[in-house]
Every structure is written in structure tokens, then in C-alpha cells.
């Protein structure tokens, strides 16, 4: 969400710097500016090695100094996270007449897989262990934004209103989790695959209102 806010802030800041020039351009040109910003974002994510994220092996350990009252050991193998840069532009429309931007973006599939992972915690005389493997996939993460702005040669740019519609089509969870010797796979998969999507849908209006408020503040903080 903040990435979208930052990208849009760059756009409107550019408009504020030269509103007369923007007024002479056509709406397609502005649409192309936004598409270019999103393409730059995609390239930046990939160049930073954030999509895909591949980790063959990773381990971690911690010991309290002097004493052995606390010991922590963790390891994971064959981790793969992909899809966060696959941003699809479903719609971009900027109207100079109404000073309105309509934007529809989506991530078709974001998935995370882990071949194996384990953790052991020794605290005083007790020892706790956990193991996990499997995958989680988020299908059709979508963000639709309707932004109305005020453009002025002297006053610059301000956000008149911003409405966000955030949705997730589905979450597919196929995790194998054993915690303290108890198999919690079914409960965790049910929580991620059913409880989370249902909760998001049930509270959709409140979530969208909150996102709209936060994004509006983030964007306005970037404006001159």
C-alpha cells in the first residue's frame, strides 16, 4: 500500500512542480507516466532480489551469555517466495476535466513455500520444539483506487478525496505444522484459508475506510 502511495506522490509532486505543462498534455500521457512508475517499481523489486526470494539453507542460534538458561536453534531449507513483482495494471485512467485518477492493480498470485523448517527452544528446564513445511498462496490480491485531486497554479496539488477498494480472491494454505508434538496443520490451514478471507470480507468497508485514510495522509505528507 505504501508503495502505491509513494508512486502516486511522485506523480502529483511532478504535477505541482509544473501544472501548466501538465495541463497542456493529454490524458494518455499522464496514464503513461503512471504506468512507467509502476514498471520502475517492478524492476526495483526484482533488482533488489525480492522476487523471487530463494533461500537454500538458513539457520539461527542464540545463547544467553554465561548461562544456559535459554537456548534457541532454528533452521530452514528450500524457501521460495515469488509473485510480489508481478503487478498487473488492469486499468489506468486520469481525467484532466474532472481531475480524477482511477487505478486498478492486482497481483495474480503471491506464493511462499518452505521445504522444511524446525525450531527448538530450551528455557530453564523445559524444551519446546516445532516443525513446519508446505506452502501458502494468495490469489488475486487487488487494489482499486479512485482519487480526486485539486490542481492549481498557485495552490499546487491537494487530495480532495481518496477511496480504496482492497480485496483478496482466495488463500490456499497447504502447511504441515507440528508444535510441541501436536499436529496443528488442519487448524492453521483452516485459519488461513477460511477464517482470514471471511474476516476480511466481513470487515471490508472498515478496512477500505482505514486504508483510504492512511494512504491519503501518506500521500499528503509527500506533497510540497
UniProtKB/TrEMBL annotation:
Signal peptide: 1-17
Record flagged with keyword Cell wall biogenesis/degradation: no
Swiss-Prot/TrEMBL keywords: Signal
Domain of life per record: Eukaryota
A Pfam family matched in the record: JHBP
Name the UniProt record assigns to this protein: Uncharacterized protein
Organism: Loxostege sticticalis
Amino acid at each position: 500500500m505504501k508503495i502505491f502511495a509513494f508512486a502516486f506522490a511522485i506523480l502529483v509532486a511532478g504535477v505541482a512542480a509544473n501544472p501548466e505543462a501538465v495541463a497542456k498534455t493529454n490524458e494518455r500521457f499522464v496514464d503513461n507516466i503512471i504506468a512507467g512508475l509502476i514498471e520502475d517499481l517492478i524492476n526495483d523489486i526484482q533488482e533488489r532480489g525480492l522476487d523471487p526470494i530463494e533461500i537454500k539453507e538458513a539457520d539461527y542460534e542464540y545463547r544467553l551469555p554465561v548461562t544456559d538458561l535459554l537456548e534457541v536453534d532454528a533452521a530452514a531449507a528450500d524457501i521460495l517466495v515469488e509473485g510480489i513483482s508481478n503487478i498487473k495494471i488492469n486499468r489506468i485512467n486520469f481525467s484532466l476535466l474532472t481531475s480524477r485518477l482511477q487505478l486498478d492493480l492486482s497481483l495474480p498470485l503471491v506464493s511462499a513455500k518452505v521445504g522444511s523448517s524446525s525450531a527448538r527452544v530450551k528455557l530453564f528446564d523445559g524444551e519446546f520444539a516445532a516443525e513446519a513445511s508446505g506452502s501458502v498462496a494468495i490469489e488475486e490480491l487487488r487494489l482499486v483506487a479512485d482519487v480526486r485531486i485539486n490542481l492549481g497554479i498557485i495552490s499546487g496539488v491537494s487530495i480532495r478525496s481518496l477511496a480504496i477498494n482492497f480485496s483478496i480472491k482466495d488463500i490456499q494454505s497447504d502447511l504441515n505444522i507440528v508444535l510441541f508434538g501436536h499436529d496443528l496443520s488442519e487448524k492453521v490451514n483452516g485459519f488461513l484459508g477460511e477464517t482470514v478471507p471471511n474476516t476480511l470480507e466481513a470487515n471490508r468497508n472498515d478496512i477500505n475506510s482505514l486504508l483510504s485514510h492512511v494512504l491519503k495522509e501518506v500521500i499528503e505528507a509527500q506533497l510540497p
